[in-house]
Amino acid sequence: MSPAPEPVPARHRVVIAGGGVAAVEVAAGLGQLAGDRVHITLLTPERDFCDRPWGAQADQPLDHGKPLAVTGVAQALGAALCADRLAWVDRHAQRVHTEGGHALPYDSVAVCIGAQARVRHPHALTFEGWRDPRLSALLESVAAGRVRRIAMIVGPQPGWPLPLYELALTLAELSRSERLGLALSLYTAEHRPLESFGEPASREVYAQLREACVAVTTGAACEVPAAGRVVVARGQLPYAPGTGVRTHAADVVVALPELVGPLVRGLPAAPYGFVAVDRFCRVPGVPGAFAAGDATSFPVKHGGLAAQQADVVAAGIAARAGADVVPEPFRPRLRGVLRTGRRPLYLSADLIGGHAFSSRVSVQASWDAGEKVVAEHLGPVLARARA
Predict the structure, then answer these.
(1) How far is CA 360 from the centre of its chain?
(2) Are 372 and 56 in contact (CB under 8 A)?
(3) Which residue of 112, 174, 259, 358 has the lowest C-beta tally within 10 Å?
(4) CB 356 within 8 A of CB 349
(5) Nearest-CA neighbor of 166 among 49, 36, 380, 337?
């Protein structure tokens, strides 16, 4: 009599909410670390892979071909696809509920649905990236001499302010080369320019702005009560004192959007509605729940950091699924390219609690600067999906 077959262990059920960089990196990392131990369901309403997190450079795609269909990405990942949107998480029944009425059981869930950008100053031009047609119209007006004074605002919310610094330096170079005589002002709630990258990088960026004749005010709380008016409270220059409330006039005011979290019902929320996470990207108080990317409470929003968080999540879930993996905490390494209108600056720093140390600034990249997002597993998956 032949022996009874060994029972096949049930696979660890993983629901990954999101269709962008962090979600795909989690799924790809799980494929490498856990293999057949996991069954992955990708939950996203997107039809195409979303490769433009707020943290990434917004003027070039990850892949220069046609948009990738989410169905192809899911197939390349070996994942099931649920074309719906996350509504809430039932931590007790361990089910993810969708807006369309689906209830997806999970052993582990990863929330990677990103942040929402909303207008903070209705009377300003909200800067949504270099592809924004309103920005093209502004540059045309500047070149034609119809706009002389431009004010730019970086608010206090978590986010990624580097693109607005690029805009300031680009406008300054255009003004210099075309002899336009632009008056450029940048108001930021930061204590110093691009403070996420640390003191050495901040000093270099400030020097670039000063050489370009961009007036910088840090520690600024700004309001735009009407078109062309900026009210600045408690402004404080980094290298010269200045206090009080001042009103400034401009032909155009450009502001970054305000980023807010998804405020997922069933998960603890941090300020601005972001998902609270610990240093292993686990959601406190919700067993089996993880989060990565711009949806999390980590204050700096950047595509590379989203991918790094995703790798931490993949290791944590793989360990829960029984893989021989020892999870490591999130040790963020920030990289960015600041286009100055002349030669780019390559900035990098290690972060602890959102604060930089080992800050570095160079005119040459110490990483592959051709990649918009540096991710360990993302590239091969996109290549398979493309093929």
Answers:
(1) 21
(2) yes
(3) 358
(4) yes
(5) 337
Largest Cα–Cα distance in the chain? 94
341 by DSSP, 3-state: which? coil
Rounded CA separation 79/6 (Å): 26
* Torsion from C-alpha of 175, 180, 185, 190, nearest 10 degrees: -10
Distance CA 128, CA 54 (A): 9
Q: How far apart are CA 41 and CA 24, in angstroms?
A: 11
- Cβ-Cβ contacts under 8 Å for 194 (sequence gap 6 or more): 161, 162, 165, 201, 202, 205, 338, 347
Bridge partners for 345 per DSSP: 338
CA distance 304 to 381: 16
With tokens 């300031």, the residue in question is: 168
Contacts for 300 with CB less than 8 Å, ≥ 6 apart: 55, 158, 160, 196, 332, 334, 351, 354
pTM of the model: 0.87
pLDDT cut 90: percent of the chain above it = 62
Token pair belonging to 372: 């918009």
Q: Which of 91, 88, 159, 174 is nearest to 128 (CA)?
A: 159
Burial class of residue 293, CB neighbours in 10 A (0-12, 13-18, 19+): buried
Distances (CA, A) of 75 to 40, 49, 51, 230, 356: 11, 12, 17, 50, 39
Q: Which residue's structure tokens are 């039932």?
A: 90
Q: What does the alpha-carbon distance between residue 364 and residue 342 come to, in Å, rounded to a whole number?
A: 14
